[in-house]
Amino acid sequence: MAPVSRAEIQAELLRGTASPPSKLVTLDEIVLLAESYRLAGRTVVLTNGCFDLLHVGHAAYLAEAARLGDVLVVAVNSDRSVRALKGPERPVIPQEDRAALVAALEAVDHVVIFDEDTPQEVLRRIRPDVLVKGGTYTSEEVVGREVVRSYGGRVCVVGKIDRVSTTEIVSTIRRTTAQDSTEPPRPAVMHGS
Predict the structure, then answer these.
(1) What is the pLDDT of residue 183?
(2) Element (H, E) at 33
(3) Could you identify which of 56, 90, 141, 170 might form a hypothetical disulfide with 86, taking C-beta atoms 3.0 to 4.6 angstroms apart as the criterion?
(4) Cα(74)–Cα(83) distance, rounded to whole angstroms?
């Protein structure tokens, strides 16, 4: 009798004999799941980002990323790491809510929140087959590319929808709010007596 590894048991469970795993997972959970998916011959795709104010550009790029493999894992920056990257007034939406919104998208299989400023450790542990970024990056600008390439993984950059970015949305909201607060109050209109 040969011993059965934990990963082999998980791979068998993932074939449909058990209920599907939750979309919101810890790093330890997704590490085991990714190993199980690979053992089952499935391609694991990973992307990462802040996903503050989820918009149509995010949805389009995540759908495109999902088409590059069998399982899409999205690593969402924690509130602390968003502040470190974007400044003290960000994020607008708390990490748990951002993760839940991303997980609600059909294209996404799993979401993990990470606290580091870069996804390096997440990539080292999960070892995705494909690392995807959307937008204006080149593959040589993608943070973590060297980690993924070191074990034979691929780096892909997918399309960007013009005129859509969280930073622009936040700027528009702030400009509109500032304009509204500088307008003099309008007199009340009385109808009839």
Answers:
(1) 57
(2) helix 27-39
(3) 90
(4) 19
What distance separates the 2 farthest-apart alpha carbons in the chain? Answer: 94
pTM of the model: 0.77
Structure tokens at 73: 């894992």
d(CA 22, CA 33): 11
C-alpha 29/C-alpha 71 separation (Å) is 14
Check residue 136 and give its pLDDT: 77
- For the purposes of burial, counting CB atoms within 10 Å of the CB of 51, is it exposed (0-12), middle (13-18) or buried (19 or more)? buried
Phi, psi of 159 (to 5 degrees): -60, 165
pLDDT mean by block of 10 residues, the chain; 193 residues: 64 54 93 97 97 88 96 98 93 95 97 96 98 88 96 90 58 62 54 45
Interatomic CA distance for residues 4 and 46, integer angstroms: 28
Structural domains in the chain, sorted by start = 20-170 (3.40.50.620)
Report pLDDT for 189: 47
